[in-house]
Amino acid sequence: xxxxxxxxxxxxxxxxxxxxxxxxxxxxxxxxxxxxxxxxxxxxxxxxxxxxxxxxxxxxxxxxxxxxxxxxxxxxxxxxxxxxxxxxxxxxxxxxxxxxxxxxxxxxxxxxxxxxxxxxxxxxxxxxxxxxxxxxxxxxxxxxxxxxxxxxxxxxxxxxxxxxxxxxxxxxxxxxxxxxxxxxxxxxxxxxxxxxxxxxxxxxxxxxx
Length: 209
Fold this sequence. Notes:
With 209 residues, this protein is of the alpha+beta class. The protein has helices spanning 3-39, 53-69, 72-75, 80-104, 170-177, 180-198, and strands at 42-47, 111-120, 123-124, 129-130, 133-142, 149-155. The strands form two sheets. Strands 2-5-1-6 form a four-stranded mixed sheet. Strands 3-4 form a two-stranded antiparallel ribbon. A hairpin with a 4-residue loop joins strand 3 and strand 4. Helix 1 (3-39) packs across helix 5.
């Protein structure tokens, strides 16, 4: 076996080990970051009475009324705990806003509001994605609550105009709004390992990014 072949094999083994370590670290990063995202997120979840056009339109009318009634104490909260406490205090006013929207629409449906922990599946909404798991959510059930749902994020305020819409850490923002930072971090780590393995050899010159 030539020295060049041996170096290529060593590089291959080293790269395989490096990839295993990086992927393991990435999986651990994802799990820990997803846990933080769930803890730092408060969702709004509205379930329509049914999937009929009228019920779906009514759902959106209730949504608009409730969002308009969200107090600044929620959007300007420094922590999700503060935001949840402000929402809990505002529940009577939010209930009144939902009831008034139903009354204006001449609907006999009832709105049931509660702030609880709910399980959500992982979803990609185009501009951002949220991992699955349990979240604190303001849940609004209209009528029989058998129709398609509508959801947004109340904290950080992704569905309220002019409000702050980011997470407290760079890692959470990378997970929710895009994985570009993570992707480049992984690439940088692999490239560094390859370059270190190659050393100064002319036959295994450091690779360029």
